[in-house]
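dumping this here before i forget
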Amino acid sequence: MTARVGVVTFPGSLDDRDAARAVRLAGADPVPLWHDDPDLKGVDAVVLPGGFSYGDYLRCGAIARFAPVMNELVPAARSGTLPVLGICNGFQILCESHLLPGALTRNRSLRFVNREQAVRVESTATAWTNRYTEGEEIRIVLKSGEGNFVADDATLDELERSGRVVVRYVGEAPNGARRGIAGISNEHGNVVGLMPHPEHAVEELTGPSTHGLDFFTSLLAHLADTSPAAAAATG
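structure:
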C-alpha cells in the first residue's frame, strides 16, 4: 500500500507544491492538508513546508502553531507515532509548537540568504535521514531571512550529547546558527526540522543536485520498517 504523506498549506506557504512533488518522486502519495481543517485525513506522515505562514507576523511560525491542523498533529508527533518534517518556515513552526527546542532568529547578516548550501548529515537515526550515511555531505538549497538557530548552552549540549543534531552547515554557517546547526530532531527521531530545502534538490534539471530526495525515501523506509506487517514479520 502506497504511503500517504500530508503537506500542510498555511496562508503564505509557497513551497507546499514543491514538497508534494518531492513526496511523489519518492514514491508516496501527497495529501493536501489545509491549515483550517483539524483532520489529518489518516496520513502516515506530515510535511510542514517553507514559506511565510501568516506573513511571519509576530514571529515566524508563531501564529501557525495555533492553526486547527496542529491540534491533531502536535500530540501525535510528540508521542513519536507521526513522522513530521518541518522545512524552513516549517522548522520555525515546530520550534514555536515546542516540538523542537530552540528558536530561529534573524540571519546574523540581517540579509536574506538564497544559495546552494553544503550540509553534513550528522545523524541517520531519524525517520527522515536513514538513507544517508553519517558524515555524508550533501548539497541542497538554503533560502531564508530568519534561519539563525539559537538555544542556550545547556540545550545545545543536550542536542549534541543525544545525537539530535541532524544536519550541520559545512564551513561557516551562512546565517550565524550556533554550532553550525542546520537541523535537529526530537528525542524519538520522528520529528525533524531543518532550514535548508531538500525538496528543491530532487531533480537534476531544477536543483543543484538530487541529494534532497533521500529525506523522502528515508521516510518510506522508516514506514516500511514500522508497519504492522514488518512488526509481525520480526515478532
